[in-house]
Amino acid sequence: MKIVVLSDLHFISQNDPRKKMIENRKFLRDGWGSFRMLAGKIRDEAPDLVVSTGDLVDWYSNENREFALEMLSEMRTPWVATPGNHDYSTYTWDEAQGKDIPVKGGSFEPTADPLWKAAGVDFSNRVIDADGAKLILVHSAFSGVAAGTGEWMNSVTAGCDFGGSGGETPILFTHVPINTKPVWDYILGEEPDRDMDKYIMSKSPELFDQSIRGKIPQVYTGHLHFPGEVEAFGTHMHMQGLSVVMVGRSKPGMGKAAVFDTRRVGEVRTLSIG
Questions:
Q1: Is 239 helix (H, G, I), strand (E, B) or coil?
Q2: CA–CA distance from 140 to each of 26, 75, 96, 174 (Å)?
Q3: Inter-residue contact 89 to 104 (CB < 8 Å)
Q4: Residue 64 needs a FRET pair 20 to 30 A away by CA distance; which of 12, 13, 21, 239 works?
Q5: Bridge partners, residue 49, by sequence
Q6: How far, in Å, CA of 79 to CA of 123, rounded?
Q7: 126: which strand partners?
Q8: Strand ranges, E, within 14-62
Q9: What does the pLDDT look like over 59-92, one tens digit per residue?
Q10: Predicted TM-score (pTM) of this structure
């Protein structure tokens, strides 16, 4: 089964009423053309499934959601996603400051999640059986996982193949990078000023040792907006960059997606519009 992995699309609709926000974020707003090019590459690749590791939109609004669904339909292939923090974030007008300010900390999630579901997008934790692999999708949008997630992951991976014994291989997809020292060191080596409370699973420091180490050999994450490949005690961490190209700003690894076959999970190729 052929899988394509995307991350951090940050779609913004011109129809969203927050016109100042749209203008302030035009470096992402105008990236949709690059995704259209990548969607063409994905159609040529003809995968069985596309997985996004989150941030389909730059902030939640019905207009941004519908634009994201329209753009993703251009891949002409089934897709699933884990949520990113932006998928559950919004802005509210502050009269005193005269501008839109973010509603942070996940407080908008109870409002946004049913609206995503009504549009056919399921962000809940789940497992997809995929011809030799188990695709494990986990919600970590706000730098941690819900209580009981580690135990659920352990039940999913029980009896799976970590070291090439021939069983099903578990593969984890989640938005925020895993909290383990090799990942910490890599992120801070690339950007020493990163807020590690936000850009790593700071609220779930036990997850790696409890439910990933020695159990899940491949992990795909997003959130950083730059790519990285890190080996952490036998688990390969694929940290995805932006799958769109920002306009007027530069980050390494933009406009790319990962491709692999579930029977050869260690052989990962890159689709690129560059």
A1: strand
A2: 27, 25, 33, 6
A3: yes
A4: 239
A5: 3
A6: 12
A7: 137
A8: 49-52
A9: 999 999 999 999 999 999 999 999 999 999 988 7
A10: 0.96
Angle (CA) 73-77-83 rounded to 5° is 70
- What amino acid is encoded at 249 in this protein? R
Count of beta carbons in the 10 Å neighbourhood of residue 12: 25
DSSP string, 184-204: HHHHHHH-TT--TTTSS-TT-
Domains of the chain with bracketed CATH: 2-272 (3.60.21.10)
Strands 169-174, 218-221: pairing kind = parallel
Cα–Cα distance, 163 to 81 (Å, whole number): 27
Contact residues for 63 (Cβ-Cβ < 8 A; gap 6+): 13, 15, 16, 17
Strands 264-272 and 235-239: unpaired
Confidence band of 267 (pLDDT split at 50, 70, 90): very high
Note whether 274 and 255 are within 8 A (CB).
yes
